[in-house]
Design a protein that fits this description.
Blueprint: H1 34-40, E1 47-51, E2 56-57, H2 62-72, E3 77-81, E4 100-104, H3 110-114, H4 140-151, E5 157-160, H5 161-165, E6 171-173, E7 178-180, H6 183-187, E8 191-193, H7 198-209, E9 223-227, E10 235-238, H8 266-273, E11 290-292, E12 306-309, H9 313-318, H10 320-332, E13 342-346, E14 349-353, H11 362-369, E15 376-377, H12 387-392, E16 395-397, E17 399-400, H13 411-415, E18 420-421, H14 424-437, E19 444-445, E20 447-449, H15 463-468, H16 488-498, E21 505-506, H17 514-517, H18 521-530, E22 535-541, H19 545-551, H20 556-572, E23 578-585, H21 592-604, E24 613-614, H22 622-629, H23 650-660, H24 668-677, H25 696-713, E25 716-719, E26 724-727
Helix pairs in contact: 10-22, 16-18, 18-20, 21-23
């Protein structure tokens, strides 16, 4: 295949001719009732968005972004938020939409929203008024879509958001412990949008408004459809197996991508392999050629007429190695500038995944975030507290995407690896809107960030290289030499933001990629001096190289370098500030000994983690493929490959979590038993060199002593008779 010479392009997001309903203008809030529609003078909605979240008219909420964007295109958009899904009645409350229903589970996957990593039901829902639990169904996209079809069978249903996005092909489902079909089939929806959906939703809305049928819309980027037969005249790259028969050892394998053009004799290779062009027959859906995946670089293929066939749903359900292989191929086709369509058979139907959407340009990003958001919940919620809104009401999203490629994270699978940044002027305008519009604003901005705090305007130096790149990460195993690592635009943004009248403080709360930050010490100095409020949370995730390699995270050397810079600049600023590292327990490939070494590192560095995270197998993540298959899709797969250890049962997962909280007496019995199994009884005892005490009596004494020390530090006094604290400062005025 020939290398790409430039980046793929797309029409400007705001250059579509407006739909006729533009004359109604922008609504104060997108209507949630017929009464609100009457006030706006609407007899019907063109599009109705059904969402699992409460409606908050804020750019951090997906339903608001898509709703306001469609409104800017001239469409009348209504919202049905958290409907009663037990019948179709709530789905009729705004009447029948003229064009389509848009269905999303909300900002979070409905299963992750409801269940913990230990499969326990959560007691609250941050995206619901007063955090009430139970306001959305399990697998909300599927249920909502089916109810929309029940309410108005002839109305197209378009599904999107992170839940649909990460289930576009067959995917391992942690909650049922099985591989499930594409959500597009289970939901009976007409089309699925994955990733950030502005481009795709605009194209669909305008095509439908011009009378085109939803079944005719088949080639929009960022969409997935169901086909009964495949288009004619295409070549197929067959990637349905791992071990191919025959002598192909000297040919490229599907897991190694050379960005240089092939110099092989294409004709002789095709003749040798028996891959010869056939006459195109418009009466059949058979491909012109079927090329085995290991040989596709030897064949001259038309990029615009080539798709990749993944192993079928039935095969990946029955064979976890094939599941890991399919996951690998999907992740290699994530670059919108060189990705090819993917096809996966489900029974007698084909799931067709079009290439990812073209990233938004800066002026397009500005246009989206400049839409007339009220930045508040819909008035129908009254004074109810929506925790997710309270968390982000003074935060500003400055970019999208993440090129980190962490295997346990699904951000890259959803938003892509190419960073899409807003202009400084757009960000500053939003800060001013927060200052002027948010009730009770105190002058503090809670965050300037996004998926990662410090990837603002960091991208590839060369368009041609970016157009051909298939790396899973721009920063692992090392930072790519073609990646821009100059943080000066972020630093300048911080400085300008602090000068806005009425702004007293700006915090940075988004995750920080510290291996990138150390490439620009001036940025670290700016961050530490002005934007850290005593504590800065960062995420090494682990200390052991073997586990870190499964995560695609940097080694602890980067952490140590960042820590030195952090402490240096904190001292220069005259501030006492501390790093709070986050770690993950029970990640695939992590063994008991790795968790022990992590616990020893924590003890050596005097860290006592209060909140810890157990690996959560989210759909489509590479680490989830590891968890399900026991194989490493980051390397060449083979049935002969040795399987990795994975903590799968709850007892093992809880043990790994216990090591992160080695200081908690509730975990000492489990840790002692584990240490005995590993023949590390040298770490059991009552000395400073030991990890846990030797017996329960010591445990109780240590617990009491820990409480005494804690209360003493706060000016209290421990009463051994009552096992309670008396406060010496009671009744006195605190200084």
């Amino acid at each position: 295949m020939q290398p790409k010479t430039g980046l793929a392009t797309a029409p400007h997001l705001f250059q579509y001719p407006k739909y006729w309903a533009e004359c109604f203008g922008a609504a104060p809030y997108l209507p949630m009732s017929r009464a609100e529609m009457d006030e706006l003078g609407w007899d019907s909605c063109d599009i109705i968005i059904v969402t699992g979240d409460a409606y908050v008219d804020h750019p951090s909420f997906g339903m608001a972004v898509i709703g306001r964007f469609l409104e800017s295109q001239g469409f009348r958009v209504g919202i049905i938020a958290q409907p009663d899904w037990k019948s179709a009645e709530d789905f009729k409350q705004l009447g029948e939409p003229n064009l389509f229903f848009g269905v999303t589970a909300g900002n979070m996957d409905s299963m992750i929203n409801k269940y913990t990593a230990d499969l326990k039901v959560r007691n609250d829902d941050a995206y619901t008024p007063d955090a009430a639990a139970g306001k959305r169904p399990d697998r909300a996209v599927t249920v909502y879509s089916q109810r929309c079809k029940e309410a108005y069978r002839s109305v197209p249903v378009v599904i999107g958001g992170i839940e649909a996005s990460l289930r576009r092909i067959a995917q391992y489902d942690y909650w049922s412990n099985e591989v499930r079909r594409s959500v597009l089939i289970d939901s009976t929806a007409d089309i699925l949008l994955y990733g950030n959906a502005e481009r795709a939703i605009a194209e669909i809305a305008h095509q439908l408004s011009h009378g085109r049928s939803i079944t005719e819309i088949t080639d929009i980027r960022g969409t997935t459809i169901v086909r009964k037969s495949l288009p004619t005249g295409w070549d197929e790259i067959d990637s349905t197996r791992i071990d191919w028969p025959g002598n192909i050892d000297k040919l490229p394998n599907p897991y190694e991508y050379d960005q240089s053009p092939s110099t092989c004799d294409v004709k002789s290779t095709e003749e040798k392999l028996g891959i010869t062009p056939e006459q195109s027959d418009n009466t059949t859906a058979e491909p012109i050629r079927i090329v085995p995946m290991p040989l596709h670089r030897k064949v001259d293929l038309n990029d615009d007429k080539t798709y990749i066939r993944l192993p079928s749903f039935e095969k990946v359900r029955a064979d976890s190695a094939l599941y890991a292989h399919a996951s690998r191929v999907l992740h290699q086709e994530a670059n919108p500038h060189n990705a090819r369509p993917l096809v996966q058979k489900h029974g007698n139907r084909e799931i067709w995944v079009n290439p990812p959407p073209i990233p938004l340009k800066t002026e397009e990003m500005d246009g989206v975030f400049d839409l007339p958001f009220q930045r508040r919940p819909h008035p129908s919620y009254g004074d109810a507290n929506i925790p997710a809104y309270a968390m982000i009401n003074t935060s500003v999203n400055i970019m999208r995407g993440c090129f980190g490629g962490c295997t346990f994270c699904s951000i890259t699978e959803h938003e892509g690896r190419i960073i899409q940044s807003r202009s400084e002027e757009s960000v500053l305008r939003e800060i001013e809107k927060i200052r002027d519009q948010v009730p009770g604003f105190t002058g503090s901005i809670s965050d300037l960030g996004g998926p990662t705090a410090n990837m603002y305007f960091l991208n590839c130096k060369d368009d041609k290289i970016q157009a051909n790149c298939r790396r899973l990460s721009c920063v692992y195993p090392s930072i790519c030499k073609n990646l821009i690592t100059d943080h000066s635009r972020t630093t300048n943004l911080y400085r300008r933001a602090r000068k806005i009248p009425g702004i007293k403080r700006i915090s940075i709360a988004s995750g920080l990629r510290y291996d990138l930050a150390i490439e620009d010490p001036e940025y670290v100095k700016e961050l530490v001096t002005h934007h850290v409020g005593g504590y800065l949370k960062i995420a090494p995730e682990h200390t052991e190289d073997k586990t870190l390699s499964m995560m695609m995270k940097p080694g602890m050397g980067s952490y140590d370098t960042f820590k030195k810079l952090f402490e240096k600049y904190s001292k220069e600023a005259g501030k006492k500030q501390y790093l709070i590292p986050y770690f993950i327990a029970a990640h695939p490939g992590c063994e008991d000994e790795d968790m022990l070494n992590l616990a020893l590192w924590l003890k050596k560095n005097k860290f006592r983690a209060d909140q810890v995270q157990t690996f959560y197998p989210s759909p489509m993540a590479l680490a989830t493929a590891m968890y399900h298959s026991g194989r490493n899709p980051l390397k060449k797969l083979s049935y002969k490959s040795r399987k990795m250890f994975t903590a799968r049962n709850l007892k093992q997962r809880r043990l790994h979590k216990a090591y992160l909280r080695y200081h908690d007496p509730k975990n000492w019995d489990d840790i002692r038993a584990s240490l005995q199994d590993m023949k590390r009884t040298d770490l059991i005892g009552d000395g400073p060199q030991h990890l846990v005490p030797s017996n329960n009596t010591s445990s109780r004494n240590s617990l009491r002593k820990g409480k005494q020390n804690f209360q003493k530090a706060r000016g209290g006094q421990w009463d051994n008779r009552t096992n309670k604290t008396t406060n010496k400062t009671k009744g006195k005025k605190r200084k």
